[in-house]
Amino acid sequence: MIFKDYASYYDLIYKDKPYKQEAEFVCDWANKPKTILDLGCGTGRHIYYLAPKVEQIIGIDASLEMLTLAYMHTKKFNNVRYIFNKTDKRLLDLPKVDCATALFNVVGYIGLEECLKYLPLKKNGLFIFDIWDSAKVHSYSFGKKCLGNHWYRESLLTRRNNNQVQVDIAIFKKKRKHIYEEQKVYEKHLLTAYSKQDIEKIGKRFNYKIVDIKPTENWSCWFKLQRL
Among 22, 41, 64, 152, which residue's CB has the most CB atoms within a 10 Å radius? Predict the structure, then answer.
């Protein structure tokens, strides 16, 4: 299962990610919702900054390793709840929320259809997520990244099939110049990239409309959908 071994290195890999700024952006863009459901919450870094701004937030993830870290990061908040979820149908049992989020390309892992099919959103509720833009991602150059303290992550794009992207990820430690220890983690991540047209078409099928789009300078793009 992906993220099983990767989870313990996740915060190290993304230590420079602007979680606080993204959480503030999401909260403002969603018109300061009272309740949020965060799909694929990972280690809870976004939730840490969203929790003080809402009445209740529920984080869901299919990785127990990720959820364990998320709980540790946010245990001081009384309005945070976590759910281990490997079946999207379980979302139907949750109370309806003002806003749902799927941050850091979670939609690419789950699939937009599966997200929209089961989201427990109130009427006119908002779904905010970022995706890999299918028009840009194929030109992105993956490679090696130094994580500090002799740790490295190497990402290799190994397959491109229409909008399907497979990324092979290895994490290893450098012992000395040109000599590396045996890799600590090796995972294959299969993702779906999307275009605006894809999202419009899928959204219409599930009674959602695009109400705003925020492109970025890289290969990702933010979308805000409203449930009709």
Answer: 41
CA dihedral angle for residue 180, residue 181, residue 182, residue 187, rounded to 10 degrees: -70
Residues linked to residue 59 through DSSP beta bridges, in sequence order: 38, 82
228, 24, 36: which is closest to 116 by C-alpha? 228
Q: Where are the domains of the chain?
A: 7-132+195-227, 137-192
pTM of structure: 0.92
Burial class (CB in 10 A: 0-12, 13-18, 19+), 158: exposed
Read off the pLDDT band of 102 (50, 70, 90).
Answer: very high
**Would you say 119 and 37 are in contact if contact means Cβ atoms under 8 Å apart?**
yes
